[in-house]
Design a protein that fits this description.
Length: 324
C-alpha cells in the first residue's frame, strides 16, 4: 500500500520584527495601553513579524515552498499537487495556491486552498495524505501562509498583540515506508462566534466587520479540552502511546494552552516545540513554521515521531501523528 512522508520542510518570515516594547510604543501613540509584561505573562509572545503592505500570503508561501523544495531535493515541476492553508488569501479568487503555482514558474498540477483558520495546516496535510494514499498525487506541496496583520483591529489590544505574519511548507511524497501514521479532523460550527472575521465583500463594498473578533477565554477553555482528546484519539489509531511522542508541535497561539496540552499528555516540557515567543500566532502558518525551525535547528531529526495539533476558528481542530 502507498504511504506518505514529509521529505522537506521550509519556512519564511517577513523581515520586519516587532518586539512587544516596539508594539506597545506604537499602540501608545493611538491611545492604546499595553506592555511587554502583560503580553509575555498572558501569552508567552515576545515579538511577531509583520509583512510590508505590498507583500501578500502568496509571496510568503512561495518563499517557504522554495525552501521546502530545496530541502526535499525536488524541483517545482515535479510537484503534482499544491494545497495552501490560509484565512488571509490574496484575493477572493483565484486561490492562493494558483498564485503560488504561477510564482513557482510551473503549471498544470492541481492547486487549491483550504480554509480552517488555525487548524488549516493539519487539515491541508490530511487532505494531501489522503490524496497520495488514494493514488491521486505523488509529490505534494502543503503550505500554511498568513498575513493576519491585514485583519487585525489595532484599536483592540485584546487581539492585536497576539498575531503575526509568516509561512511554512512541507513536501509530502508517496513512499513505501510509513511517514504520516494517523490523523483526525473535527469542526463544531456552534462556536462560529467566538473567533471570527465576519465581514465580506458584495456589490463592490465591504459588508459587515472585516476585522478579527475573539472571545479569548471561551477559545482558551475549548482549546485545551479538544487538543487533549484529539491527540489521544490519533495515538490510538496509530497504535502508539504518549511515550512514543518525541516532539509535540501544537498550534502556536498561547504558551499556556500549549503547556497545558503537554501536561495533559504527560509530556515533559522539553518535548514541546515553542516558536510562539518569536512568531506570535501565525494561524495556519504556525505549525509548519515551528516544524521547520525545529528541523533546521537540529532538534527534530529523521526518524523522530512528531504530533502536530491545530485548533482555531470554526471552531476547528485536528491532529496528525507522523514519523519524520
Ligand atoms: N495589554 C494590557 N492589558 C490587556 C491587554 C493587553 N494587550 N488585553 C487585555 N487586557 C486587559 C483586559 O482589558 C482585562 O482588563 P480588566 O480586568 O480591567 O477588564 C485584563 O487585561 C484581563 O483580560 P482577559 O481577557 O480576562 O485576559 P486573559 O487572561 O483571558 O487573557 C488572552 C487574554 C491572552 C486572549 C487569553 O484569553 C487567551 O490566550 N485565550 C486563548 C485565545 C487564543 O490564544 N487565541 C488565539 C487565536 S485562537 C487559536 O488560535 C486557538
Amino acid at each position: 500500500s502507498i504511504h506518505s512522508r514529509i521529505t522537506g520542510t521550509g519556512s519564511y518570515l517577513p523581515p520586519r520584527r516587532v518586539s512587544n516594547a516596539d508594539f506597545a510604543a506604537e499602540l501608545a501613540q493611538r491611545g492604546i495601553e499595553t506592555s511587554d509584561q502583560w503580553i509575555v505573562e498572558r501569552t508567552g509572545i515576545r515579538a511577531r513579524h509583520f509583512a510590508a503592505p505590498d507583500v501578500a500570503s502568496s509571496d510568503l508561501a512561495t518563499h517557504a515552498a522554495r525552501h521546502a523544495l530545496e530541502a526535499a531535493g525536488v524541483t517545482a515541476d515535479q510537484i503534482d499537487l499544491i494545497i495552501v492553508a490560509t484565512s488571509t488569501p490574496d484575493m477572493i479568487f483565484p486561490s492562493t495556491a494558483c498564485l503560488v503555482q504561477q510564482k513557482l514558474g510551473v503549471h498544470g498540477c492541481a492547486a487549491f486552498d483550504v480554509q480552517a483558520v488555525c487548524s488549516g495546516f493539519v487539515y491541508a496535510l490530511t487532505v494531501a495524505d489522503s490524496m497520495i494514499k488514494a493514488g491521486a498525487a505523488r509529490k505534494a506541496l502543503v503550505i500554511g501562509a498568513e498575513v493576519f496583520s491585514r485583519i487585525l483591529d489595532f484599536n483592540d489590544r485584546t487581539t492585536c498583540v497576539l498575531f503575526g505574519d509568516g509561512a511554512g511548507a512541507v513536501v509530502l511524497e508517496a513512499s513505501d515506508r510509513p511517514g504520516l501514521l494517523a490523523s483526525e479532523l473535527h469542526a463544531d460550527g456552534r462556536h462560529v462566534g467566538i473567533l471570527c472575521t465576519p465581514g465580506t465583500v458584495a456589490g463592490g463594498q465591504v459588508l459587515g466587520d472585516p476585522l478579527l473578533k475573539m472571545d479569548g477565554q471561551a477559545v482558551f477553555k475549548l482549546a485545551v479540552g479538544v487538543l487533549e482528546s484529539v491527540a489521544r484519539s490519533v495515538l490510538e489509531k496509530a497504535g502508539r502511546t504518549e511515550a512514543d511522542i518525541d516532539w509535540l508541535i501544537p498550534h502556536q497561539a498561547n504558551i499556556r494552552i500549549m503547556q497545558g496540552t503537554a501536561k495533559k499528555l504527560k509530556l515533559p516540557l522539553d518535548k514541546l516545540v515553542v516558536t510562539v515567543d518569536e512568531h506570535g500566532n501565525t494561524s495556519a502558518a504556525s505549525i509548519p513554521l515551528a516544524l521547520d525551525h525545529a528541523v533546521r535547528g537540529g532538534r527534530i531529526r529523521p526518524g523522530d515521531t512528531v504530533m502536530l495539533e491545530g485548533v482555531g476558528g470554526g471552531f476547528t481542530w485536528g491532529a496528525v501523528l507522523l514519523d519524520l
